[in-house]
Design goal:
Blueprint: H1 14-21, H2 35-43, H3 47-113, H4 115-142, H5 144-153, H6 157-171, H7 183-208, H8 280-285, H9 303-310, H10 315-330, H11 333-366, H12 372-380, H13 382-388, H14 400-406, H15 418-455, H16 481-500, H17 505-520, H18 525-530, H19 548-559, H20 561-564, H21 583-600, H22 613-642, H23 669-687, H24 692-718, H25 722-727, H26 730-738, H27 754-758, H28 761-764, H29 766-775, H30 789-821, H31 844-874, H32 893-909, H33 915-922, H34 924-936, H35 945-963, H36 970-985, H37 991-1000, H38 1007-1015, H39 1027-1034
Helix pairs in contact: 5-6, 5-7, 6-7, 6-10, 7-10, 10-15, 11-15, 11-16, 11-19, 15-16, 15-21, 21-22, 22-23, 22-24, 23-24, 23-30, 24-30, 24-31, 26-29, 29-34, 30-31, 31-32, 31-33, 31-34, 32-35, 34-35, 34-36, 35-36, 37-39
Length: 1037
């Protein structure tokens, strides 16, 4: 910073500042020496220039000085004038003080002359002031009852209690105790104390159950304008969901000016009766100032009022705190606690009943013109219709009725039925209401306990254990958080019992025994954590579970035989049905309710969150619901698999196969019913993830029994039949595994290497080996074949049904896996009605594989059966001599019989099996027929040209029959039978031409087949003696 930076130089003369900066520092030192400058000028060559530079600098300095003088001249003048004024005031003050000293001296002389008289006058004035004060107090006290009544009418309960307490203390003062005129006032104040107590108690009661003016209860979606009955009439606050504060109603009478006329909006809103437009500007200006709630606007400022002003708690919590403070000021905490205990259960019962009634009215009004029964039937069928899509076949048969008859529950009670949804919605509504009520009870309970502990600081603080009704609760009249929680859960348990149509007497007895045990002995924390047997929740109160002060009130309200039995809740008016199967829809709301309660409980009551409603429901499910379900569904499974129609194929013979059940896939009724029942059981598992393990085991048990029944039906159809015995042979099984047709089977699990053998199947000669094996079984007897087409249809339908069940079981496994993933803290539960077995338990995947293997066995039997049928009909060909005398017009009888069998069986099997499976069943006929036709020549002795034509006619007819089957490749069939016709047409060649053909096509047939061409006798064909030798040279045999 420069030396001249602070000079007041105007902006238009900024150059002066720069010129000043150029002045040498030697001119600005404190002790200026002019000699060096004079010497410098005298010795300078340009003396005139140096002198002119000095003059210029002098002009600059003078100009700067002028600017400074002009700037500070007025300030200097004002400073001088102010100093002059100060001197004048000091002079006048000195003169005044002198005069005051003279006056005080004169007054001292006058007062000292009459000191005694003045003292008497002062004493008389003090006495008169005291008398006037007492008279004013008496007059004010006489007006106290009127003022209190006015404050009560204005709902200023805290202000009324303040006035009452202050007046009562004033009446106890020494000067007012002897005033006889105040006896009536004392009597009125005593009466008003009781009136105030019941007013405060009613307001507290209303806000405890969210029916007060400042309650935080917001109507749910289904609670449109619900009116919850209570002992006092109160209105819900308007627009509680808004975030902006609202003005409370106008205060009547002498109200405080300022922020006390507005209501706090910490919780997001409050009710109001109106507003004054003149106060809007004031509210905007004071919006950042903490405001008193409306009910404290007439109160006298004190510590509590200031606390409420600064508190950020929700509005309803502030109101509850105010009412508890009023009770403490009235010294009525114990009486209020006792009354709350007495009215807790009836009020909760009434709220639950009214909620159910309101919900029923809302549901009925939401569907005008639809009756309850019609609505129930419509919604209840959604589950079954969703599963079967109104399965109505062309032949008029329907499975909906049969499935509904076998299921132990009606469609309304199914896992996704109307009753389940209605029960869940109802319980969600009730438990949400109970949670909000319990939140208020936690606030009040903590306040009462803290107030009672402050009033009795010497009381020892005991550790909260299973017995919460200790001596500490006497100060609150027996009312504690544990007490309210127990009653609330007890009423919820009674509602659940009504929904489930269960009787809680046994559970209540167990609870009472355990409550008495806990009252006599406090368990350690480890034992409490490990205790799992029995119920740890007193659903019904006994004298051992109620504190001494609340015992009398509880006995009056509950222990009388006539009053102990409460009426029901009316849940039947909203639920289409009631019963034990609603436990599935009850479980999840109760689990969520327990989690909410656990998060709300104070730390010292945290142990209570582990027991109660959830423990009761879990024990009920384990001890009652699961065994009942197992028995019911076991009966349903037994009925499904033992009915005459269970394994009776059901399809229209003219209908085409469809892969969709909803469009008519002909699944056997027994297996479709089992699938339906298994899905229902897994639906229960999804609703109750904790018990999914037991329910999946039930499904496994049902699937095992069904598999045994399917196996028995399969065995009955193929017993003692040659095809059944063949597929059981190890060599045949290996050949069928390598057969290219195995790719058409339901799964490649049993044929893992099939894909590796498809390409070289012809080289390996798998089909040839199978044909050779079947040819060795000749002669085949008719008794060893399945001649009954109904059994073949059963095998086809059973195979398709088993494949459907296997696919469904795999989906079951996915559903069960998802249910187990959502399970939290799963504990092993005993398996009911499980048969003892030394084998390890199967999982659903193993059952799916078993069902699929049995389906594959059915297909294998059908394929081998058709191949054996082909061999059975063609074995006549080897014993016949084809010496025909005319050209063939019709195929042989055995060919006609075979074609008829193929056509008829394809017609009856087609509706029951997929086209790829039909290809597998009938696809083996062509290879066996062609191989058998060629092998038959080896056993023929004579054949003429007409015989060759007859065999060609037979192959053509068989080719046409097989090509008519849509699923079979007609080109492959034609190629194979062309091969047969080519073979027999070689008989028409002379031997020389035949040998030439063999030379060119040595690999078209094998050597033995070529040798058989020379072996058979053909009329008109001469065979040289060396023909066989020459053929041996070409094809070594």
């Amino acid at each position: 910073m420069g030396l001249f930076d602070g000079l007041p130089v105007p902006k238009d003369k900024e150059y002066l500042r720069e010129d000043l900066e150029n002045v040498d520092e030697s001119w600005t030192v404190a002790r200026f020496d002019s000699l060096p400058h004079v010497v410098h000028i005298l010795t300078s060559k340009d003396r005139d220039g140096e002198i002119q530079a000095l003059k210029d600098q002098s002009d600059i300095v003078e100009e700067v000085v002028d600017e400074v003088v002009q700037t500070y001249h007025s300030g200097f003048n004002r400073a001088i004038q102010n100093y002059s004024q100060i001197l004048r005031l000091f002079s006048e003050s000195t003169q005044s003080v002198g005069k005051l000293k003279v006056d005080l001296g004169n007054a001292k002389k006058v007062i000292s002359a009459r000191n005694k008289q003045l003292h008497q006058l002062w004493y008389r004035s003090m006495t008169l002031r005291h008398i006037i004060s007492l008279l004013d107090q008496i007059e004010n006290i006489a007006q106290v009852p009127t003022r209190i009544n006015k404050l009560i009418d204005e709902n200023q309960l805290y202000a009324a209690v303040q006035v009452h307490v202050q007046s009562a203390r004033m009446l106890e003062r020494e000067g007012l105790q002897s005033v006889g005129a105040l006896q009536d006032v004392r009597s009125e104040l005593a009466k008003l104390r009781g009136v105030l107590f019941y007013k405060v108690l009613e307001a507290l009661h209303a806000h405890l159950y969210n029916t007060g003016e400042y309650s935080s209860a917001t109507p749910s979606m289904n609670e449109k304008d619900d009116a919850i009955p209570t002992t006092t009439v109160a209105a819900f606050s308007m627009n509680n969901s808004q975030s902006l504060s609202r003005r409370t109603r106008l205060q009547k009478g002498d109200s405080h000016v300022g922020a006390s006329g507005f209501a706090s909006s910490v919780d997001g809103g409050s009710s109001y009766d109106g507003h004054d437009d003149d106060d809007i500007d004031g509210a905007d200006n004071a919006k950042n100032v903490p405001r008193l709630p409306a009910w404290l606007s007439e109160s006298t400022p004190d510590e509590f009022v200031e606390t409420m002003r600064k508190s950020e708690s929700p509005l309803h919590v502030k109101y509850l705190q105010t009412m508890v403070e009023c009770l403490c000021m009235l010294d009525k905490v114990a009486a209020a606690g006792a009354i709350i205990c007495q009215r807790l259960r009836p009020t909760i019962h009434e709220i639950i009943t009214s909620k159910i009634k309101s919900q029923a009215e809302y549901v009925n009004s939401s569907r005008p013109g639809v009756g309850h029964a019609a609505r129930t039937a419509t919604i209840g069928l959604e589950y079954v219709k969703g599963h079967l899509h109104k399965e109505q076949h062309k032949n008029g048969t329907s499975l909906v009725g049969s499935l509904m008859a076998v299921s132990p529950v009606t469609p309304v009670m199914a896992p996704m039925g109307a009753a389940q949804c209605a029960a869940k919605e109802l319980l969600d509504l009730i438990l949400d209401t109970v949670v909000r009520i319990f939140d208020n009870h936690i606030v009040v309970g903590e306040l009462l306990e803290s107030k009672s502990s402050q009033q009795a600081p010497k009381a020892t603080v005991r550790e909260i254990s299973g017995n919460l009704d200790s001596e500490a609760s006497q100060a609150t009249g027996g009312y504690t958080i544990g007490f309210s929680m127990t009653v609330l859960q007890s009423e919820c348990q009674q509602l659940i019992c009504e929904i489930l149509r269960a009787t809680p007497e046994a559970a209540s007895a167990d609870a009472a025994v355990q409550t008495a045990r806990l009252a006599s002995k406090t368990p350690s924390k480890e034992k409490r954590d490990k205790s799992e047997d029995g119920l740890t929740f007193a659903f019904r109160f006994t004298d051992a579970a109620v504190s001494s002060q609340g015992a009398d009130l509880m006995r009056q309200g509950r222990n009388r035989k006539g009053q102990n039995v409460q009426e029901g809740y009316g849940s039947a008016s909203i639920l289409p049905e009631q019963g034990i199967y609603l436990a599935a829809s009850v479980y999840r709301p109760v689990l969520q309710f327990t989690d909410k309660i656990a998060t709300m409980l104070p730390e010292k009551y945290s142990q209570l969150g582990n027991d109660g409603l959830l423990a009761f429901l879990e024990n009920f499910v384990k001890d009652h619901f699961l065994p009942t379900m197992f028995v019911d569904y076991r009966k349903g499974v037994q009925q499904a698999i033992s009915s005459p129609a269970a394994f009776r194929p059901r399809a229209n013979p003219t209908a085409a196969y469809t892969p969709s059940v909803s469009k008519g896939r002909p699944i056997l009724q027994g297996l479709l019913t089992i699938d339906f029942l298994a899905k229902e059981v897994l639906g229960w598992a999804q609703a109750m993830p904790k018990f999914s393990g037991d329910l999946v085991k039930y499904v496994q048990t049902f699937l095992e029994r069904t598999y045994e029944r399917c196996r028995a039906s399969y065995t009955e159809a193929v017993l003692e039949k040659q095809s059944y015995m063949l597929i059981g042979r190890h060599d045949v099984e290996n050949l069928m595994r390598r057969d290219p047709a195995s790719t058409f089977l339901p799964t490649s699990l049993a044929h893992a290497n099939a894909d590796n053998h498809i390409a070289d199947a012809e080289n390996d000669g798998v089909e040839l080996q199978i044909s050779e094996l079947l040819m060795k079984l000749r002669p085949i007897k008719q008794e060893s074949l399945i001649r009954d087409n109904n059994k073949l249809v059963l095998l086809a339908s059973l195979s398709d049904s088993l494949e459907y069940i296997a696919d469904s079981i795999e989906r079951f496994g996915n559903v069960a896996g998802k249910a187990s993933e959502t399970e939290i803290d799963l504990k092993p539960t005993p398996v009911h009605h499980k048969r003892n077995s030394s084998l390890p338990p199967k999982d659903l995947a193993a059952f799916a594989e078993d069902y699929r293997k049995l389906a594959i066995d059915c297909l294998k039997v059908l394929r081998v059966e058709m191949q054996l049928e082909t061999v059975f009909n063609l074995q006549v060909m080897a014993t016949r001599e084809y010496l025909e005398d005319q050209d063939a017009e019709e195929p042989d009888d055995y060919i006609i019989s075979l074609i008829t069998q193929i056509t008829r069986r394809d017609e009856v099997i087609a509706p029951f099996i997929a086209p790829t499976k039909r290809n597998y069943i009938f696809g083996g006929i062509c290879a066996v027929a062609s191989h058998a036709s060629i092998k038959a020549l080896a056993e023929m002795k004579h054949i003429n040209l007409f015989g060759v034509q007859q065999i060609s006619r037979n192959t053509i007819a068989l080719e046409q029959a097989l090509s008519a089957i849509p699923s079979i490749d007609s080109e492959s069939v034609q190629t194979r039978f062309d091969h047969v016709r080519t073979y027999y047409e070689l008989l028409n060649m002379p031997v020389e031409a035949l040998l030439a053909f063999i030379t060119e096509h040595d690999r078209l047939f094998n050597p033995i087949e070529y040798y058989n061409l020379l072996k058979v006798q053909v009329p008109g064909r001469e065979v040289p003696d060396d023909a066989k030798a020459r053929m041996a040279d070409i094809l070594p045999i």
